Automatic annotation (TrEMBL):
Family affiliation: Belongs to the glycosyltransferase 1 family. Bacterial/plant glycogen synthase subfamily.
Pfam families for the chain: Glyco_trans_1_4, Glyco_transf_5
HAMAP family, per the entry: Glycogen_synth
Ranges for domain Starch synthase catalytic: 57-295
UniProt pathway annotation: Glycan biosynthesis; glycogen biosynthesis
Gene Ontology MF terms: alpha-1,4-glucan glucosyltransferase (ADP-glucose donor) activity
Role: Synthesizes alpha-1,4-glucan chains using ADP-glucose.
Annotated CDD domains: GT5_Glycogen_synthase_DULL1-like
Protein name stated in the entry: Glycogen synthase
EC number(s) given by UniProt: 2.4.1.21
Sites where the protein binds ADP-alpha-D-glucose: 70
Reaction(s) catalysed by this chain's protein: [(1->4)-alpha-D-glucosyl](n) + ADP-alpha-D-glucose = [(1->4)-alpha-D-glucosyl](n+1) + ADP + H(+)
SUPFAM superfamilies documented for this protein: UDP-Glycosyltransferase/glycogen phosphorylase
Organism of origin: Billgrantia antri
Length: 539
């Protein structure tokens, strides 16, 4: 057995070359992990401790889904979470019929129709069935959704509401369609018992149900509170929002109409995607002006955090996107991916660590800090690759960085899932100094692929990274704090045994969607029972 230590962490190597354990301070086990390949998933398809509660008919409403259109993490969640929940529920999805959806080779059967309402046009509902049986309802309205460009606009809008000029109409139409399906008004032969709505683009759905006088329970999940869907108050009439709703207890946010606030106010329950972010958004630093309302929801027991997971496709042993598969028993594939990434990004061969950033390039993600840290990383013998899309100014800064450090910094401005997977697989460290991070999927993907995240201790990053065990966390979002964590990463990198122990620990992270089935099932059950009680008492 070997034994090395860094900052209070003792590391023991097992004789069999497979079992490892990490302890803090040498005494108290912080995380004892027996690293066996393949032990990270439960055999129980219904999930860890999934309760034997009744199955529900759920309509999962989203503005992006990785099967067709993905801007960021919401696309991944929309593709994976309903599939995990389908083990226990009759769950179907509603998305706008974007150009990519209509152009896909899947058959779309027309199954429903919705009339115009205020300035929201009439539309049809199509149904498509995925290979795995998942049913997706698509909202057919070519004038709103069939366009060249992203789901929110052509620019660096991210989840923003300010991309396409008619985004208020586009996503009010989606919200109203969800409400109409929920109310049984769409002519479908299927009616959900509850709606599961995601982010600002679906925020008006529970509000429309409320204005219709329909008691359909709903979960509203906040993936990112910073994007709120704010519009001029004068747009209310066009969107079919009653005048009486425009007040501080309703959809008004400092004189504007807020889709996000509508969802929070009117949904039966609000969730967000990690326990820490659920707490953070009740404070002024993270609440984006909605902290008072969210605190109130929390006090009523109507705000909770259910962490995201990752799906089976993120497995370095089987991922066909990788240059070569690998596992914690065989690192040759990891090295082959690193060679590919270095070549692909024009970097020279190096014995130093490869740092990566895979991200929407926006202020939230702290890319400015990474740009400031880059010269220090290069000077210390590291290399850096960036893949991302976002604010034009940031993209230009990244291009300049690559020009300044040829052979040491590589940049790809764009979105490419396959390259992103190779980068997770090939890199040694993932940089994620996010100012806030509701959950974050990238750090989980990186861990799974043996790349240690270096991240700000916030939101889901704080919940999914064990500092010094499965990655590195720093407390203040400033260059000094970030650099300290980077320096720690360098010293771990040069302490080979510890580095490989951390890699192995990171790769066994138990972040699977199956773990979300039980908490969502309990929540669905609770809000359905409450809605039933309410209906009986008002009958
Ligand atoms: N250029 C590129 N090419 C290819 N892939 C790229 C890419 N840029 C980013 N990605 C991918 O986009 C996804 C990003 O997901 P994250 O959850 O990390 O952040 P995001 O801020 O988008 O999500 C928001 O919603 C999710 C879901 O709830 C929360 O986890 C998160 O905290 C919140 O900010 C990952 O799958 C990543 O690999």
């Amino acid at each position: 057995m070997g034994n090395v230590a860094l900052k209070g962490i003792n590391y023991e190597t097992g004789n069999d070359g497979r079992s490892r354990s990490l302890t803090l301070g040498g005494d108290v086990p912080l995380a004892e992990r027996h690293v066996e390949e393949g032990d990270n998933d439960s055999d129980d398809p219904r999930g860890h401790g999934a309760p034997s509660l009744p199955s529900q008919r759920v309509l999962f409403v989203t503005s992006e889904i990785a099967d067709f259109v993905k801007v960021g993490g919401l696309g991944d969640v929309s593709s994976a979470l309903p599939r995990a929940l389908a083990a226990h529920h009759d769950i179907r999805i509603l998305i706008p019929a974007y150009r990519e959806v209509v152009a896909s080779s899947r058959e779309i059967r027309h199954v429903g129709q919705l009339p115009a309402h205020a300035d929201l046009p009439a539309c049809d509902i199509g149904e498509m069935t995925c290979d795995d049986g998942l049913i997706i309802y698509v909202l057919l309205c070519p004038e709103l959704y069939e366009r060249e460009g992203g789901p929110y606009g052509t620019g660096p809008g991210g989840y923003g509401s300010s991309g396409w000029e008619d985004n208020d109409v586009r996503f009010a139409r989606l919200s109203l369609a969800a409400a109409e399906i929920g109310a049984g008004h769409a002519g479908l032969d299927w009616q959900p018992q509850l709606l599961h709505l995601n982010d600002w683009a679906c925020g008006l759905a529970p509000a429309y149900l409320h204005w219709m006088g329909r008691n359909v329970p709903s979960v509203f999940t906040i993936h990112n509170l910073a994007y709120q869907g704010l519009y001029d108050a004068s747009r209310c009439a066009a969107l079919g929002i009653p005048d009486s709703a425009f007040h501080i207890e309703g959809v008004e946010y400092y004189g504007k109409l807020s889709f996000m606030k509508a969802g929070i106010v009117h949904a039966s329950h609000v969730t967000t995607v990690s326990a820490t972010y659920a707490q953070e958004i009740t404070t002024p630093d993270f609440g984006c002006g909605l902290e008072g309302l969210l605190r109130c929801k929390a006090e009523q027991g109507r705000l909770s955090g259910i962490p995201n997971g990752i799906d089976d496709s993120w497995d370095p042993r089987t991922d066909a996107h990788l240059v070569q598969a690998f596992s914690s028993n065989d690192w040759r594939g990891k090295r082959a991916n690193a060679d590919y990434v270095r070549h692909r990004f024009g970097l020279g061969p190096s014995a130093g660590p490869l740092f990566a950033m895979v991200s929407r390039m926006v202020h939230q993600k702290g890319v400015d800090l990474v740009i400031d840290a880059a010269p220090h990383i290069v000077q210390a013998g590291g290399q850096l690759v960036f893949i991302g899309k976002g604010e034009r100014r940031v993209e230009a800064q990244l291009d300049r960085l690559a020009e300044r450090y040829p052979g040491a910094v590589g940049v790809y401005i764009g979105f490419d899932e396959e390259e992103a997977r190779c980068i997770y697989a090939g890199s040694d460290f993932l940089l994620m100094p996010s100012r806030f991070e509701p959950c974050g999927l990238s750090q989980m993907y990186a861990q799974r692929f043996g790349s240690l995240p270096i991240a700000h201790r916030t939101g889901g990053l704080a919940d999914t990274i064990e500092d010094g065990v499965t990655g590195f966390l720093f407390d203040e979002v400033d260059l000094a704090g970030f650099m300290q964590a980077i320096q720690q990463a360098f010293s771990v990198y040069h302490s080979t045994e510890l580095f490989y122990a951390m890699r192995r620990a990171a790769m066994t992270g138990r972040y699977h969607w199956r773990q979300s089935i039980a908490p969502y099932t309990q929540l669905y059950q609770r809000i359905s029972e409450e809605a039933g009680v309410e209906a009986r008492s008002s009958a």
